[in-house]
Amino acid sequence: MQTISRLDTLRHAVTLLKSGGKTLALVPTMGALHEGHLTLVRTARRHADAVAVSIFVNPRQFGPNEDFDAYPRRLEADAALLAAEGVDIVWAPPPAEVYPAGFATSVSVSGLDAVLCGAARPGHFDGVATVVTKLFNQVQPDVALFGEKDWQQLTIIRRMARDLDLTSPRADAILGVPTVREADGLAMSSRNQYLTPEERAAAVALPRAIAAAVTALKGGTPAAQAMADLSAALLAGGFSRVDYAELRDATTLDLLDAPGAAPARVLVAAHIGKARLIDNAPVI
Ligand code: AMP
């Protein structure tokens, strides 16, 4: 495994790999790796001959009052985990390598970025779309993997990749991987470490309230009622604020009054302690 921090070295390594005829998968991450990330890596290995994992805490996707400085960084431990998974390339550039002085370009996926986390975190998805475009150009992957935990992000990247012809024509070029959860159902997240033991125990209210909402929706409860009940359950269960709890079309992210024929998802973001947690589930 090569851990690379300079773009020219990365380009050389990718050229070498591809000249040997190997296909390459990319797993973009911000590090502080857990089983969710490692599941993406294991899935990647089944879809390509070689796997590159990027580790980059992207300043452009954090708002001014968000946790960019506090975000956990532990490259050495992450690299050890990835070496054990048989990863070929770890791409861990410093910010100046990604955003040289005078950097002036931004990628925006309009519409999809105006709702949900985009409404609560202005500019967040421009930061995500911009860095993912750069990562695709740098690593030139045949396939890239993203977690369904960040459903809106996955939707936006799929649209962007299609709109900008960013990836190979493979049908699985952007692969979504189901959310990996702790034993009690809480979605794994690098941000769970911000929680005290009491908050961590209370956080299980999030997947439970989503599951209850899915059951209610399937039983015919209107979305407005199911989402109000969901929010109330979170606030009663120890969450301090709900950014959103909504039923939306899984692809267009259009707001729905009730699940219909097209795939729909319940999506939630809520605050507990110092953490803002997100989660979502399909209504099928
Ligand atoms: P992050 O490091 O949080 O930016 O996440 C990097 C990638 O891992 C993103 O595609 C996430 O959606 C994905 N991911 C994070 N947590 C999970 C999880 N619990 N299950 C599956 N994928 C995840």
Helical run tally = 10
Structural class by sheet pairing and helices: alpha/beta
Number of domains: 2
CATH homologous superfamily grouping of the largest domain? HUPs
Can you walk me through this structure?
The chain is α/β, with parallel strands linked by helices and 284 residues long. It folds into two domains: 2-177, HUPs (Rossmann fold), CATH 3.40.50; 190-279, Pantoate--beta-alanine Ligase, Chain: A,domain 2, CATH 3.30.1300. It is built from ten helices and nine strands. It has helices at residues 7-19, 35-47, 75-84, 95-98, 117-120, 124-139, 151-163, 197-202, 205-218, 223-236, and strands spanning 2-4, 24-29, 50-55, 89-91, 143-147, 174-177, 241-249, 264-272, 275-283. A six-stranded parallel β-sheet has the order 1-4-3-2-5-6, with helices on both faces. A hairpin with a 2-residue loop joins β8 (264-272) and β9. α9 (205-218) packs antiparallel against α10. It is globular. The N and C termini lie far apart (41 Å). The mean pLDDT is 97. The structure holds adenosine monophosphate.
